[in-house]
Design brief:
Oligomer: single chain
Radius of gyration: 18 Å
CATH superfamily: Electron Transport, Fmn-binding Protein, Chain A
Strand content: 35-45%
CATH architecture: Roll
Number of domains: 1
Order of helices and strands: EHEEEEHEEHHE
Number of strands: 8
Largest sheet: 8 strands, antiparallel
CATH topology: Pnp Oxidase, Chain A
């Protein structure tokens, strides 16, 4: 990381970013071309969980090469200025790598969907129709490495001050 003063090393802050953000972008390799998609996700114990249809381009790509890069940002905000070059973005972000397993086991799907629903604020919605489970897969991204960063303009929430 070029700007070491912006690196986040505190594991609790990194966990907060992973557990409170809502969109994860995953870059895959499609032959010699990158293929990038945004997903809502759930995070638990160093894994990112995503629900998916059983067919599609991303699954075709992942079956050939399941090594991916991912990116998550936590509530980015534009900070305006008096001139164009005074504008900036306040953010916290994570970039990482890992392998994605395609999960079709019913019980594993239920566990992953519960993690997703907890992350998105609805832990009480934790029962799933068998017909829905049969028509979906879970992508389980096992994180192998990651770095976290925050903008120099990041304003710490009151509980961190």
């Amino acid at each position: 990381m070029r700007k070491k003063n912006q690196e986040i090393k505190d594991k609790a802050k990194i966990e907060d970013i992973l557990q409170s953000s809502i969109i994860c972008r995953i870059a895959m390799t499609d032959g010699n071309r990158p293929y990038l998609l945004p997903f809502n996700y759930g995070y638990k114990e160093n894994c990112i969980y995503i629900h998916s249809a059983k067919k599609g381009k991303k699954l075709d790509i992942l079956r050939k090469n399941n090594y991916v890069c991912f990116e998550i940002e936590q509530e980015p905000k534009i900070i305006t200025g008096e001139t164009a070059c005074d504008w900036t973005t306040e953010y916290r972000s994570i970039v990482g790598y890992g392998n994605i397993d395609i999960i079709d086991d019913t019980e594993e799907k239920k566990k992953a969907l519960k993690i997703l629903m907890e992350q998105h604020g609805a832990p009480e919605l934790n029962t799933f129709e068998e017909k829905d489970l049969k028509r979906m897969m879970i992508l389980k991204l096992k994180i192998s490495e990651m770095t976290a960063k925050q903008s120099s303009s990041y304003i710490k929430p009151k509980e961190e001050n």
